[in-house]
Amino acid sequence: xxxxxxxxxxxxxxxxxxxxxxxxxILRESLPEATFIETSYGDMPYFVDxxxxxxxxxxxxxxQQENAIKALMPHRAxxxxxxxxxxxxxxxxxxxxxxxxxIANPDGSVVEGLGILDATVERREPQRFRDVNLxxxxxGDGSAPxxxxxxxxxxxxxxxxNSRDYFCKNEVGFGLNEGTKLxxxxxxxxxxxxxxxxxxxxxxxxxxxxxxLVTGEEVRPAFEEASRASYERRLTEFRIPGVGxxx
Length: 247
What we know:
- The chain is of the alpha/beta class and 247 residues long.
- Helix content is 25%, strand content 26%.
- The protein has one domain (6-238): 3-Layer(aba) Sandwich (Rossmann fold), CATH 3.40.50.880.
- A 6-stranded mixed beta sheet has the order 2-1-3-4-14-13, with no helix packed on it.
- Strand 5 and strand 6 (110-112) form a beta hairpin.
- The protein is globular.
- GO terms for molecular function: transferase activity.
- This is Glutamine amidotransferase.
- Keywords: Glutamine amidotransferase, Transferase.
């Protein structure tokens, strides 16, 4: 592992919806020698003056998205610079919505987003969208495609053209919205997915790939045997017709 492996977790006090704090927990267990920086609301983000090995933000309540946008907006140009340079960035659940151009509320008011993603978000409370996801992620580095499993529980639908930069192509479950199977966004090493679960403990092959991207070495995920058993079961169960209706 690189001696300077540093992982920044943005707003961990918010990022615990759908068990998403489990993403950070499994990285800590998998990389005990790495440095983990928890940037809380009000802190200066580590990425402003450094280049982390990974920047991660996990799913949060809708009411905290505006706080996240407010905290990150002064550093938008720096975050865009890191994305353009290929720094690994992983936003899961509705955390990625802060990167959109805007978030529209049911009352017609609009929240300006960071605008790193060419997308808009529509909040539909009290309508809730729930589903299971089973899709294919292409690492883009010559290694084999990876099947991903996860869940979706959200009040939002996302509009935007991700036909050239989607995170994964779903076999089961909706993508950015109920009219597409293309899920999330991938721009170089910026990965935005609405999948919960949490993503990393549920997907050992993707987690191993991410650990290699972050460290430059082959690192096996913590608790891989248990994780793989759960993963294999979901690969079968999620293909049962109608399973998503019971989430």
